[in-house]
Specification:
788 residues; alpha/beta; Rhopdopsin 7-helix transmembrane proteins; Alpha-Beta Plaits; 4 domains; eight-stranded mixed beta barrel; 23 strands; binds ligand LFPHGCPZ
Length: 788
């Protein structure tokens, strides 16, 4: 069989078909590499690109098929043989390149060089491959067999590494190589260009290329597309919304659930901005954590986003989609709609709150109940321990409340409890705890108790509050309360004991005839009662001026003869029933209640009047020392009040007045004291520090205070001369006074030894029983006369 006249047409078709297939192989492998990542196919693809070029050159140098003048059968055959040799080499080395990290550029360069060498050799030095009339040369036949040999080796390696390739590639490559061997064998054996062997050779070559193209199309395009289609379906059946965005935040994909969740059409979503579509308007894109994650290509885990407009809450997880190891091409967002779970959580939270409230609060009065009270008591104990404070626990029980319930019904009873509880709320302070114990029992925790009177006052207020008539509809009801009080830490440091004790005190109050309060410890009831009684007595006493002033002389011992230099005014209360009450029993109470201001003004008035009188009589009592309470000094009208007293009692020079202020009082707020005392000093009144050594004076303040005398506290004098510590202390105070340029006076001097010690150490001013106790004015007058 001969193809004769149509050979050129057939040859052109066969060769150009091979060229197109080769180009197809190279283009497909190159452009699908980004997702196939198949370096084996990429290698073959690159090789077939250059094979296509060489095959074009082979065709173009074939006589009768050439476009240019250059044609020569040896050139054309040389192109052919070397192209096939190149092709066989590519097929042989391809299995070894499957994992090799070769550089595309280097490979392209290598193939370019090989191609160029083939071109140079074929065009310029074509070896003799065909002799007109004789046929193929031995060289040509030898090279063809060599190519067959390479292809046989290729078959071996393809088989050896068969497991490394997909079934399609594996089979296609083997078939393709076998067909190429057959093609080469045909081209080695043919003698006549138009003969059947040449025809068969081209058909085998055609088939070998075609099979290779098929395999590449299947693995590089069909399979990935099928996979993509499959994953697209899978992606749509994912029960969570999934949205893919590119790195600029434009939506590229959104699955069915995502579209349903946001109520959007796919056409309106794809290509639009993710932030605009899916995030609340209130969030600025620059501050949106999801958008930041997209922009930075960073993982974002379990970010909760609540959209108030849509009433939805969703949990977002974002992970980068990488096109290769280093560059992020977009982000995959998996969204879990947790709106329902959130609503449930909120409901459970609310129910928990309600339950918690019901556990801790009384439903009728909304007051803390027994449980919460115990908790508050626990806190009160911790706080009191920490700050070294006291607190009181009051248990309040309404008297004969049962009768109201029995006669008027529980509804009225409930209203009475509510009214009483709001009265209690008005009576107690914000910081105190009021609780309903159940039934008609209430409890109050009064924290940081400063004085027993404060507890007394609160209990008394509650008793009075309970007694006020209650108006409910047409009923006017009268109730009363019995209160039991226990004190922390005096009675106990344990909550349950404190509760037990306030309970038993409350029963005692019931036994005592109801409508009263009792402390758990009976003495405390007595102390509290007597203090409160004294408080009201003291108020009356100040109003009735039931006080006398005693005077205690102050002596200067610096000369041979002792000289009277002053008198300290010391008040006594002439109680109508209890007789003369000493100041230590009522001065602290007067200070606590603020009555000291009025009391001291009264003493000042009486003492200044008396001393002025003595001066008028020509006597010289020296300076009058008045005790000045801090509260007095801080009264706005204090200076004016002194002036008025002085003016009222006639003339007494202010230089005859001295104020004694205790060290501890002065150091409480020295800055304010300095200002006020300076005014007194400017008036010519002397200031001395009383009870010096018992407070904690700051030396810097001592220097700044306008004080001219220190009074050594009698507690130090008492230890003189026996107690070494007192000796050191007294000496130090005297030295300090000298260094500060102040006078010094010792009080509480009872013995000659004490007086001598003081004298020897430089303290010449003395006050004490050694000379005189505080004495009434008549006796004082005699004392003054005896010292004139
Ligand atoms: N704010 C006011 N305080 C006043 C007033 N009157 C008195 N007081 C203060 O009351 C405290 C007790 O005073 P009193 O019972 O009068 O005792 C004074 C002296 O009797 C006592 N003293 C003096 N010498 C001796 C002694 O040798 N032995 C001894 N056992 N006691 C002695 O010292 C008290 C004087 O103290 P002081 O004032 O510190 O100089 C007392 O703190 C008074 O200050 C008043 O009108 N207003």
């Amino acid at each position: 069989m001969r193809i004769g006249a149509h050979y050129l047409a057939f040859h052109s078709f066969a060769e150009y078909f091979a060229v197109f297939v080769s180009l197809g192989i190279s283009l497909i492998t190159y452009y699908t590499y980004s997702f196939t990542k198949n370096r084996y196919l990429l290698f073959i693809g690159l090789g077939y690109f250059w094979i296509a070029i060489l095959d074009v050159l082979h065709t173009q140098t074939y006589m009768g098929m050439n476009i240019y003048e250059i044609y020569d059968s040896n050139t054309s055959i040389t192109f052919w043989v070397f192209t096939r040799l190149f092709e066989a080499s590519i097929l042989l080395t391809a299995p070894f390149m499957r994992y090799r990290e070769y550089k595309n550029f280097n490979l392209t360069l290598l193939f370019f060089i090989i191609t160029s060498i083939i071109i140079v050799v074929a065009m310029n030095f074509p070896p003799e491959m065909f002799i007109e009339g004789e046929g193929l040369t031995d060289l040509k036949i030898g090279l063809e067999y060599f190519i067959i040999f390479i292809l046989l080796v290729t078959l071996y390696f393809n088989k050896k590494y068969a497991n490394e390739f997909s079934a399609v590639i594996r089979k296609a490559m083997q078939y393709s190589v076998i067909l190429t061997i057959l093609a080469e064998a045909s081209f080695a054996l043919y003698t006549d260009v138009y003969g059947v062997m040449n025809l068969a050779g081209h058909i085998f070559k055609f088939l070998s290329f075609w099979i290779l193209l098929q395999a590449i199309l299947k693995t590089s395009l069909e399979e990935p597309f099928a996979l993509m289609q499959k994953s697209a379906t899978t992606y749509n059946v994912i029960p969570y919304p999934v949205i893919v965005v590119d790195k600029k935040g434009t939506v590229r994909q959104a699955n069915r659930v995502a579209l349903e969740m946001f109520g959007k059409e796919e056409s309106s979503v794809i290509g639009s901005r993710n932030h605009k579509l899916f995030h609340p308007k209130s969030i600025n894109e620059n501050e949106c954590p999801i958008c930041k994650s997209i922009l930075n290509g960073e993982v974002l885990e379990d970010y909760i986003l609540t959209d108030k407009d849509l009433n939805t809450t969703a949990q977002y997880s974002l992970s980068p989609i990488k096109s290769n190891e280093n560059s992020v091409s977009g982000m995959l967002q998996i969204i879990v709609d947790i709106t329902h779970a959130k609503t449930l959580e909120t409901k459970v939270e609310k129910q928990k709150e309600v339950l918690e409230y019901q556990t801790n609060y009384d439903a009728l009065t909304n007051l803390p109940n027994r449980f919460l009270l115990e908790d508050r008591l626990e806190h009160a104990i911790q706080k009191a321990k920490h700050h070294d404070e006291e607190f009181a626990l009051l248990l309040i029980d309404l008297d004969q409340f049962k009768q109201i319930n029995d006669t008027l019904g529980h509804k009225i009873g409930d209203q009475v409890l509510k009214i009483f509880s709001s009265r209690l709320q008005n009576i107690i302070h914000e910081d105190d705890t009021l609780a309903r114990f159940g039934g008609d029992e209430f409890s109050v925790v009064l924290e940081n108790v400063q004085s027993l009177e404060a507890v007394y006052e609160l209990a008394e207020n509650i008793i009075q509050g309970a007694k006020q008539p209650i108006f409910i509809g047409k009923h006017t009801l009268y109730i009363s309360a019995s209160i039991g009080i226990s004190m922390y830490p005096k009675d106990s440091g344990d909550i349950h004991d404190l509760q037990k004790y306030s309970d038993s005190a409350m029963y005692k109050a019931k036994e005592e005839g109801r409508n009263n309060f009792q402390f758990y410890s009976p003495e405390m009831t007595l102390i509290a009662m007597s203090k409160v009684l004294m408080q009201s007595d003291l108020r009356k006493a100040i109003a009735n001026e039931e006080f006398v002033v005693y005077y205690q002389p102050q002596i200067d011992t610096s000369n041979d003869k002792d000289v009277l230099i002053g008198l300290e005014a010391l008040v006594r209360w002439e109680h109508p029933t209890q007789g003369l009450i000493p100041p230590f029993k009522f001065i602290p109470l007067a200070e606590e209640t603020g009555m000291i201001v009025e009391l001291d003004r009264l003493v000042m008035k009486m003492a200044i009047a008396q001393v002025a009188q003595w001066y008028k009589e020509g006597l010289n009592p020296g300076k009058l020392s008045l005790n000045l309470a801090m509260k007095q000094l801080h009264q706005d009208d204090f200076i004016q009040a002194i002036q008025t007293i002085i003016d009222d009692c006639g003339c007494i020079d202010k230089k005859y007045l001295s104020f004694e202020i205790t060290e501890s009082d002065l150091m409480t707020n020295p800055e304010v004291s300095i200002k006020k005392l300076n005014i007194l000093k400017e008036l010519g009144i002397e200031i001395s520090i009383d009870d010096f050594g018992t407070g904690y004076s700051s030396l810097s303040y001592l220097k700044r205070l306008p004080v001219s005398k220190l009074k050594i506290d009698q507690s130090f004098t008492r230890g003189i001369p026996g107690d070494k510590d007192d000796v050191v202390l007294v000496k130090t105070i005297i030295a300090l006074a000298k260094n500060l340029n102040m006078k010094v006076i010792a009080e509480g001097v009872e013995t000659k030894e004490q007086k001598e010690f003081m004298y020897e150490n430089g303290c010449v001013e003395i006050q004490g029983y050694l000379y005189s106790k505080p004495i009434p004015s008549e006796e004082t007058k005699k004392f003054i006369i005896s010292y004139q």
